[in-house]
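Hey,

Quick one before I head out. I ran the complex with heme C overnight. Inputs first:
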Amino acid sequence: MRRAFAVLAASIVVAAGGLPGIGAAQEADHRIIVPLPDEDRARLQEDMREFLRQNTGLLNAVIDGDMDRVREMAQGARPPLPRIRALASGASLPSPDGKNPAVPPEAGGRQRPLTLFERMQRNLPQPFKDMLLGMRETVAEIERDAREIGDSKHTLRQLSTIQGLCVSCHDLYKVVSKPPGAPNLAEQD
Ligand code: HEC
């Protein structure tokens, strides 16, 4: 048993070293580094775990052929679409009642501390924010189409589009902890 394992392990090492393209884990990491303060990074990771739960929940609802549940889950998806739209467009965060637009941080010559939303807006690269928006908009389309079309195969294709965005972004970006006091992306140069 132990010998069989050793032989297997050795053949994996040989295969990984000997066949270019197979040992992907050993290739250089070319992902773009995105530094985020620890608090913001923790929040992003929390959102990510929520994305995984949501996508799995939607997939299970489709498997059960329950398009009402698909619609309800997509409707309740977090974060809300207006928040992600504002994040990607650079607009200030809409307040829940639609009134009181946030005072810009640099207004009146006095700099107030940035909110978490504003830091995310400044620190995340534009294509990163665009992919988050693409994902969230597809969830909104899932809700609409579950209501108007009600075709589970169509929903599956939409879920697969979302999965493609999960994969692309994870292949492209790597988040690291930003030292306190380091400038935000939008404040460099
Ligand atoms: C726009 C980019 C982007 C998209 C889209 C994206 N992710 Fe992520 N995800 C990241 C980054 C960057 C990290 C690493 C965060 C870190 O280490 O601080 C991450 C981390 C995660 C983690 C680990 C969280 C943790 O607790 O450490 C999970 C799980 C995850 N993503 C799931 C998903 C799923 C599922 C999707 C699609 C439904 C998705 N992500 C879409 C960028 C993205």
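Residues 41, 44-45, 48-49, 51-52, 55, 128, 131-132, 135, 162, 165-166, 169-170, 173, 175 surround heme C (CB under 6 Å).

Talk tomorrow,
K.
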